[in-house]
Each structure stands twice: as C-alpha cells, then as structure tokens.
Amino acid sequence: MRRKRGRPLDGWLIVDKPSGMTSTQVVGYARRVFDAQKVGHGGTLDPLATGLLPLAFGTATKTVPYVMDGTKIYRFTLRLGESRDSDDADGAVTGQSDVRPTDAQLRAALPALTGNIMQVPPVFSALKVAGERAYDMARDGRPPELPPRPARVDRFELVERLDADTAVFEVESGKGVYMRALARDVALACGALGHIIALRRLRVGPFTESDAIMLDKLAPNDDKAPASPDLLCPVGTALADIPALALTEEEATSLCHGRPLGLVGLMGRIPQTDASGTVRVMEGERVLGIGRLEDGWLRPVRIL
Description:
Layout: E1 11-17, H1 23-34, E2 39-41, E3 50-57, H2 64-68, E4 72-80, E5 82-84, E6 93-96, H3 103-109, E7 115-119, E8 128-129, E9 132-133, H4 134-139, E10 149-163, E11 166-173, H5 179-189, E12 194-204, E13 207-208, E14 213-214, E15 244-246, H6 249-256, E16 261-262, E17 278-283, E18 286-294, E19 297-303
Parallel strand pairs: 1-14, 3-12, 15-17
Antiparallel strand pairs: 1-3, 2-3, 4-11, 4-12, 5-6, 7-10, 8-9, 10-11, 12-13, 16-19, 17-18, 18-19
C-alpha cells in the first residue's frame, strides 16, 4: 500500500488571507509549510478578499460543514458609479452611472436585503451550470443566467461613508451569501451602479480575528524544517459554538460504536438546541463528535 506523503496532523489553522491569493493557493502553501498529509478550508474567500480562512488538517476536515454553517461577519467597501462583470474590482466595467445615493437612501435599501432573501449569485462564482463552473463560462464569454437562491442575512449596516463614491458596510450572514451580490444589489436598489473594491472576513463560526495568523508567520527560520504543529488549534475548537452534552465513559463508548442513547437516561444534561437538535458530544474535556437529538434518542452524526 502506497504511503501518503506528509505528516498526519490534526487541527485547525486560522489564516489571515492576503489579497491576491485564492483559497486553494493558501491551502497548498499551508500543506507544503507544514508537510501535512491532508488540508482543506472552511469557506472560500475571493482572491480580492482578506481575512479569516480556517484551514482544516486531518480529522478536522470532518468538522468543516459545521464551520461553514456558522455565522460569518464581513466588512466591505462599495464603490459607486460603475458595475463590473465580476461585481468586484477585478472585473471589467459593464456600466456607468452618475447617481450617488445619500446615506439615508443607502440605509433605506438595507431592510429589503436583510433576513431570508432570494439572491442572484455573481456570474463569476463556483456554482455549476450543466456541469460547468459559472466562472469558466463567464471567462469564455458565455455568462450564465443564474437563478435566485435562498440566502440568510442577519445584519446589514452602513458603518462609514468615506466620500460620495465609497461606502463601508458590515454584514452578518449564514453560509452561501455573496457579498459581491449584496454590494451590487444595494446600489441597484438606490438606482445606482456599484461594485466591491475591498472585502474582509472578520469571523467564521467560533473563529475571530484574534485567532488568525498571517501566512508569512508560518514558515520557520530553518527552511528545511516544517512549521510547528503547536500553531494548530484542537479539532474540537471548530464546534465551540454548538451546545455541549456531557456523556459518561460508558455512554461515550456506546455512541462511538454507533449505538444511539435514549434521552431518558440523559435527562438533566440535555442542553437547549436549535431546531436541528445538533449537539457537541463530550466526555470530560474531550470532544467526541457531533450528535443529534431526535425521536427520543441521541444519535451519532459525526464521530471524531
């Protein structure tokens, strides 16, 4: 059997992504610097964007969906006056407008773009249309007609007006919300045109800027030595904002073998959960994985 290249590392690395790199390039760099077998990321950032890009090593990749489902906070700068085919500064100009909305007009447009909305994604996106990536079709001069998709925007605020042409917004949202589309749509709602010129992600699930490390801080002084595993956060940190349910050693063994546990025996320990009934299953300080409360049972969903 062929041995996988690299070290078997487990944990999370929260990178402060620089502008100009793709998320895939950051993953490749981290894999090389750490000499790691397996690395993935928890939510793509556009090349123009900066900020939090959580990288999952080894068994942490099992928890990526829970990070991507978590709340995200972004700050972006809208440039008024031009539309771009990519809805950001990297694209080609597709239209111009002399309309410059007032602060009051911008704020008045925000409620319609907040809550559970339908959003038309940018044509330069990774969505697939008949088996092709939308961005590949757009680059070939065949921009697809993308249908509106459900999106959840919890908070959308105008935080600063730099001048008549530029405004800074902060957004708190669920997964799959395109900031470029929000920037485009708030301008359109005011009868103007606009695109993003700066975008930064400030939070992903339980991870914040205080957890992040710059890419240039990863490489050790000795070029031949891999980066230290001490830079990685434990796998379970990705689940920190999911309600915890403590199990005994015997209960933990049963659940880890795939056997559901009756909720009657867990009474007094069951935390308040959202509608999904998802819990972070613990044995002492150790995170065992993810379980779900349903039909009177605690069922294992993902064991780490």
